[in-house]
Design goal:
The complex is a heterodimer of chains A (158) and B (588).
Chain A lengths: L8 H7 L6 H12 L4 H11 L3 H10 L11 E6 L2 H5 L2 H12 L13 E6 L11 E3 L2 E3 L7 H6 L8
Parallel strand pairs in A: 1-2
Antiparallel strand pairs in A: 1-3, 3-4
Chain B lengths: L4 E5 L2 H5 L2 H14 L4 E5 L11 E4 L6 E3 L7 H9 L8 E4 L7 H5 L17 H6 L4 H7 L3 H11 L11 H10 L6 E6 L8 H8 L1 H15 L3 E6 L4 H16 L15 E6 L9 H8 L23 E5 H13 L1 H5 L9 E8 L5 E6 L4 H8 L9 E6 L5 E4 L9 H6 L8 E6 L4 H15 L5 H18 L6 H16 L3 H5 L2 H9 L1 H9 L14 E3 L9 H5 L5 E2 L7 E2 L9 H5 L5 E3 L1
Parallel strand pairs in B: 1-2, 6-7, 6-9, 7-8, 10-14
Antiparallel strand pairs in B: 1-3, 3-4, 4-5, 10-11, 12-13, 12-14, 15-18, 16-17
Chain lengths: 158, 588
């Protein structure tokens, strides 16, 4: 898919020449493009006069940066201690089954969902917890997962 | 009598439990009928009772309701307005029976004093509760006096290690440099910990005010709050607070006419646990990979961009205003001699009262769990409490009389840590818990030190093997050997403490490891590959429900006859166990 890098110019202008800006810049780029493609990283490297290797190094270090296209809805499974002892693994299995994800696959074929694990969402009293986009769902059971996913069902855009 | 006021707790945990619907219902009624003041606040700490609504200013005094149903909240309000006790779950009450009055009575609130009380988005509300008076007082003091006061208070770093805050400040104060920085570490990454999130969501100005005082004392003119991006509400509340503090002249140039300048920025973390380590955090603020650097030089000499820098954790900063306002001697009256003050804990796991508490140091673990925390959630007995997250350890029932202070907790092999406390019952497998934490640290190791990078991976492999029933008797020795070397061979706290969860579980729950290795059995019934499902002949009625559910058809038996599970074919999925309505399947 061809990406329009001219969309990045405003962010590049805002940050150029300032110290310590690489992480917020990459966050903005990811916000605009959805993920950090290698071409996008090369483009930023050239325009910001920062080595591409340095950008790649930062992008791969932090879990927030995505190097592959992401689904429309992001599902975050909390893997915190409280969720772990409350069967977060069972929730993950239920999600993978419902979304028909095999092995390491994290995004559904229709690009509607991306499933990821996060260390802790900080809502331990509601364990086990997942977050879909900005909404947190707590006190889950594997059986209840399909019902939650229904609300985000894939709709063909006309 | 004061005006009738309704407050709804709208922190992350409350919203996740449905507090927004409650608030919107009240808002609609407020616009229509009116007759009361509607306010928002953050987290009172009783997350297990969310959504929580507080009524005050009526004949019944202040009462708080828990688990409020949006469909009934207006009915409760009407009752309260007429002086009738609402027919609801009353959790706190001034003049009546509140189910949790005693949970709060066991606490001493310094850091959380405004959380769940004030509207975190209103600087006026903070000022009305004594906000920014400590700053005014501090600006009239000599910087050395402030540092001395903090030193005299005995406050120790609440991020986990427990280093004297005053001493740390004095290093930064004495350091020479054209520019200095102060940093607030809000990269709360321990799984099972949410103290900093609640503090920032509930009372952001208290942290900011503490930082301004610290900056003045140490001679810094710029500061950063490094906050996890996973905490959007905390970041939003901080942004609003900084803007309002600037508008009121508490931040920026010539603060309160003193000639002192201080600018404060927020830096969002991008998801890396190691950034909670102070040298890695500074690398991250500089926009680099967050990898720790060798100390010395310490940040106080050469920190952010080579300038003297002082880093403290959220909770540490949140203690400063109280110490300045009340004095170090008052602070020392709380807690123990070597660990004065209070500590905030996030209670989670198999405990009835999960949520946020603040208790005086010196309280026993038993009192925290059974008095302040309301005891166990279910009938299953207490097994261990995990403190300090992936850097900490599991403390067994036999040590529940241990008091909470840095040195006593360290003696158990766990650490105070930042304050995560996860309670575990007999249904928790300790080998699985150790594996869980090793999996975490192995993932989060930045890769710089060989022992941390590869050693944690080897430990994880061994632990995984044990939980799968493939462990050998030599494995325990190997784990202990690796642990000792990882501690010695790692540069930063992440590696140096990564083996703690394994070492403490080996120390207190060794027999559980041995059961996995020698008997191929998981006593807690957690490790799937070691489970054995068997039909209990006396209970089986032959309904065939299990046989129909079994995905590999390994259950045989005729209708109304006892069934049998073929162990060679069983994949241990547990479908039969969930399907049986007669408790006729034994899992063990």
């Amino acid at each position: 898919m061809e990406q329009d890098f001219s969309l990045l110019e405003a962010s590049i202008e805002k940050y150029r020449g300032k110290p310590g800006i690489l992480i917020p810049l990459l966050q903005e780029v990811q916000e605009i493009l959805g993920y950090l493609s290698k071409d996008a990283m090369r483009y930023i490297a050239k325009r910001m006069e920062i080595p591409a290797a340095e950008i790649y190094g930062v992008a791969t270090f932090y879990s927030m940066f995505k190097l592959r296209p992401q689904g429309k809805h992001i599902i975050r499974i909390c893997k915190g201690t409280a969720c772990h002892v409350s069967d977060a693994d069972g929730i993950k299995e239920a999600l993978k089954n419902a979304l028909q994800l095999e092995g390491d696959q994290d995004t559904t074929v229709d690009m509607n969902f991306t499933l990821m694990e996060v260390a802790c969402l900080g809502c331990c009293s509601l364990a086990p917890v997942i977050m879909i986009d900005d909404t947190t769902y707590g006190k889950l059971s594997p059986d209840g997962i399909p019902k939650i996913l229904e609300r985000y069902a894939f709709v063909e855009e006309s | 009598m004061s005006e009738l006021t309704v407050k709804v707790g709208l922190a992350s945990c409350g919203v996740a439990a449905g507090a927004m619907e409650v608030f919107e219902t009240l808002e609609g009624h407020h616009k229509g009928a009116g007759g009361f003041r509607l306010g928002r606040t953050a987290c009172i700490g009783m997350c297990f009772e969310e959504p929580i609504v507080e009524f005050s200013g009526g004949a019944l005094g202040k009462i708080s309701l828990g688990k409020v149903d949006p469909a009934k909240v207006l009915e409760h309000l009407q009752d309260y307005q007429q002086g009738v006790l609402p027919k609801a779950n009353i959790i706190l009450a001034d003049q009546a029976e509140g189910s949790h009055n005693e949970l709060l009575a066991g606490q001493t609130r310094i850091v959380l004093r405004n959380c769940g009380v004030i509207d975190p988005k209103s600087i006026e509300d903070y000022e009305a509760h004594g906000g920014y008076t400590a700053l005014k007082k501090a600006l009239a003091m000599q910087p050395e006096e402030i540092v001395e006061e903090v030193k005299a208070s005995g406050l120790r770093g609440r991020g986990g290690a427990g280093f004297s805050t005053g001493l740390k400040w004095s290093f930064a104060q004495k350091a020479k440099g054209p520019k200095k920085y102060v940093v607030c570490n809000a990269d709360e990454g321990d799984p099972g910990a949410f103290m900093d999130r609640s503090t920032l969501e509930g009372d952001p100005h208290n942290v900011i005010e503490g930082m301004i005082i610290g900056a003045f004392a140490m001679g810094a003119d710029e500061g950063y709050i490094y906050c996890r991006a996973e905490y959007p509400m905390a970041i939003q509340h901080l942004m609003i607070a900084i803007e309002k503090a600037e508008a009121k002249g508490y931040l920026g140039k010539n603060i309160m006419g003193s000639g002192f300048n201080f600018a404060l920025h927020i830096k969002e973390g991008a998801g890396a646990f190691v950034c909670g380590e102070e040298t890695a955090l500074m690398q991250s603020i500089e926009g680099k990979r967050g990898m720790p650097t060798i100390r010395p030089p310490f940040p106080a000499e050469s920190g952010l961009w080579g300038c003297p820098t002082n880093i403290n954790n959220v909770e540490t900063w949140a203690n400063i205003t109280w110490i300045i306002n009340h004095g170090s001697s008052e602070f020392r009256k709380i807690g123990t001699e070597k660990s004065p003050g209070t500590k905030v804990f996030a209670l989670a796991g198999k405990i009835a009262g999960s949520g946020l508490i603040e208790v005086p140091m010196g309280i026993t673990l038993k009192d925290i769990i059974y008095k302040v925390g309301g005891g166990m959630k279910t009938d299953k007995p207490f097994k261990a409490v995990q403190m300090g997250g992936p850097s900490g350890g599991c403390i067994p029932a036999s040590l529940l009389d241990t008091i909470v202070d840095y040195d006593s907790i360290n003696a158990t092999g766990a650490i105070m840590g930042s304050g995560g406390m996860v309670v575990m019952d007999s249904g928790t497998c300790m080998v699985d818990v150790a594996r869980f934490f090793l999996n975490f640290t192995q993932n989060e190791s930045c890769g710089k030190c060989t022992f941390c990078r590869i050693g944690t991976r080897r430990m994880l492999e061994i632990l995984t093997r044990i939980t799968e029933g493939k462990g050998t008797p030599e494995d325990i020795g190997k784990l202990e050997d690796l642990a000792a070397n990882i501690i010695k061979g790692s540069l930063c706290g992440l590696g140096q403490t990564a083996p703690n969860p394994v070492l403490t579980t080996l120390r207190y729950f060794r027999e559980e490891y041995l059961a996995h290795i020698n008997e191929k059995r998981c006593p807690a019934g957690v490790c799937t590959s070691l489970l054995r499902y068997e039909v209990i002949p006396d209970k089986c009625v032959g309904c065939t429900a299990c046989a129909r559910k079994c995905p590999v058809s390994c259950i045989s038996g005729k209708v109304k006859e006892v069934h049998y599970i073929d162990q060679d074919k069983c994949i241990k999925c547990g479908a039969c166990y969930s399907a049986c309505k007669f408790d006729a399947i034994n899992k063990g």
